[in-house]
Amino acid sequence: MLIYPKDIQEKLGIDQLMELIRQRCKSDFAVEFLEKARPSSRIEEITKWLDQTDEMLRVISSGDNLPSRDFQDLRVFLKKIKVKGTFLQAEDFAQLKSLLALLYDWTQYLKKHQEVYPELCSLTYGFIADQNLIKAIELIVDEKGVVRDNASPELASIRALLIQKERAVRTAINKVLRKAIQDKLTDEDSSVTIREGRLVIPVKAEHKRRIQGFIHDESATGQTVYMEPTEALQLNNEVRELQYQEKREIARILTRLTDLVRESVEDLDKGAFFIGLLDFIHAKAVFSKTIDAVKPGVTKNPMVKWYGARHPLLWLSHTASGKPTIPLSLELSRQENRILVISGPNAGGKSVALKTVGLLQYMFQCGFLVPASEASTFGVFRSIFLDIGDTQSLENDLSTYSSHLTAMRYFDEMADRNSLFLIDEFGTGTEPQFGGAIAESILGQLNARKAFGVVTTHYQNLKKFAENHPGVVNGAMKYDVGALEPLFELEAGKPGSSFAFEIAKKIGLPTQIIENAKGFVGTSQVDYELLLNSLESERNKFQKLTKKLEKEEKEVISIKTDYEALKEMLQDEQKRLIKEAKARANQIVEEANQRIENTIRGIRESSADKEKTRRLRSDLEHYKKTQEESIKKEEKRKKAEEIKVGQHVTIEGQDTSGEVMNVKGKQAQVRFGNIISFIELSRLRKASAQAARQESRARKIGGINMIEKMSQFNGEIDVRGVRADEALQKVDEYIDQALLLGTDQVRIIHGKGHGILRDVIRNYLKSHQSIEKAVDEHIEFGGSGITLVTFR
């Protein structure tokens, strides 16, 4: 892949990014992989690198009990092993065993999860991670790097005899020491020590001839000598000989063990490569997690279709200081616009936008995950050209502008339809009239070659070129005209103003100077700038109104939803009451008809007996009066139940009670939980004392105002960007609150991402006894990025 200039990494800040990844490498081998990382124009390589890093990111975010990630360079030991006749020391074998265990554990883990992590698993092919070799080392060397006593029968025998002889030496020497202390030949607190590998006792220099033996050392002052008594001489010699035998036996054992390891050196070489590469991929994944990077969509065609792209170094800096980072959205394609001309005020973010494009494209083609939305699509370019900053060349005796022209000549010669060029402050460095003309001519050539590019400029002729030539589009860095402050947000489709006069006025430059400058520029140019400023101001106002309307629209939708739900409930209740009233009326009519028929039948059967007829009519009249009195009592009862503000009431036929907020005419305003409704007074009944107490307790449980809680309760929780353990804690607390408030359904926003957070939350929800189902939200309202929870 063609890259220009050679120091593009320093100019784009890629060297700083590489250093941050280097800090996360555990081994020198991983650092070597990092230093060799270069952008590729082969989509197969790029996709493989992206998949490897993406899979590792999912591995470390999975919550699994992972193998050790203390990656070390296995080649250090292999270099020693490859020299015949040499052997590794016991402490080397202890480290080698740990690395072999790490190698075996990772190969087994990846093979076990090969369907989930296919690219990482493919790295384990072609070599054998032998657990038998680990067991062989374990039998010989312990965790502290010491050869075990039972490594061989000979070693066990030597060490047993060595312990016996050392004990005899110490017994003999202690006997001499006690006698020396008793005879005041040494201090009372003296003890046996070691000099040149032999046990000795301290003796005052003036008494050294009173003890037979050999002097091995003396103190710094010369007042004490360290003697090996004659009684211990032979025993010490025997101990020394046994120690030599022990070393020879250990050397023989380790040589045999080294030869065993040497037989697997080919597999171990491949295993060393695997560990180094895995360390490198792990470092990339850890860094990707730090900058919230993802694997974007990939296409072999050169294109830029980015959403929410962020400059990683700027984002880290702003995050550390608590500042926001405005993301970049940009689209360049063959079918639409290939070249973006960005204009706007100084310090408005033009250069940052250009560097973001260069840095992220370089990262992508190196196979690094990028800090952008997963909906973004990155294309592959065969060459990337950059001209940015002060490129004055002292070696070649070139001025800044000459260096720019040298770069432009290279661009013109090498750029094609698969190239991406990035030029900052296009045309500057010489007289604006001539610099702008040359820049326009070069831009025309690059456009004719169908190259892709991003350039920043203040020149009007380049803005007008973008307006009048297909394939080229203007872009502006947004600016708050009222506050005269940059918003650091790119907007494609229109040129930006430099706001030179406005900024000069804000700084306090005298009005006369500004007016004179306007005269020098010319009326048409000033009018053009004023028009751009006016458009910017109107656009800002429109955006604020749009955001306000969107917020109000959401509130209206929420109120409408609550209203429709309440309306449906009331309609159902109304239907039920009418049905019950009709049934009761029919029952009364049937009873009345039955009594009338019985009366008529009795009169007929009594052959019009006057006394019996009178009695039957009296009974019928009594029934009529009884019904009338019952109706009057019901009316009195209803009148006695006059609804007042502050009372607890229920809808007739319902158990749920609410509080009367206001009474107006024939309607009352009642609050049921977090819903306030207007209901006909005739349909309301005073709540019983028990219901009122229950309502009071429900409203205030444990000192918590439940009505207030209901009104403030949000029907959804957002846990995007939160670690899995923290997200689970938040979701658990939120579910408990929803159950306490009697909510039927809630939404959990976790985002799509790699699906890890969603799976963790779903698994938790499945085990919750109070949850009926947890499914994806409707595709129009978030799809798999949101879980819709329904309670039993």
Taking all Cα atoms into account, the compactness measure Rg is: 45 Å
CATH architecture type of the largest domain: 3-Layer(aba) Sandwich
Helix % is: 40-55%
Question: Major sheet, described briefly?
Answer: 7 strands, mixed
- In the CATH hierarchy, what is the class of the largest domain? Alpha Beta
Quick one: how many beta strands? 26
Strand order of the largest sheet: 1-11-12-13-9-14-15
The average pLDDT value, as a whole number, equals: 82
CATH-level-4 superfamily name of the largest domain: P-loop containing nucleotide triphosphate hydrolases
Q: Helix count?
A: 24
Broad shape: flat
- Detail the poorly predicted runs: 391-397, 697-705
Q: SS-based structural class?
A: alpha/beta
Q: Tell me the strand percentage band.
A: 15-25%
Distance between the termini: 60 Å
Total tally of structural domains: 5
CATH topology of the largest domain: Rossmann fold
Question: How would you characterize the overall build of this protein?
Answer:
With 792 residues, the chain is an alpha/beta fold. The protein has 24 helices and 26 strands. Helix 6 (90-112) packs antiparallel against helix 8 (131-140). The two termini are 60 Å apart. The model is unreliable at 391-397 and 697-705 (pLDDT under 50). Residues 717-792 form the Smr domain. This is Endonuclease MutS2. Its EC number is 3.1.-.-, 3.6.4.-. Keywords: ATP-binding, Coiled coil, DNA-binding, Endonuclease, Hydrolase, Nuclease, Nucleotide-binding, RNA-binding, rRNA-binding.
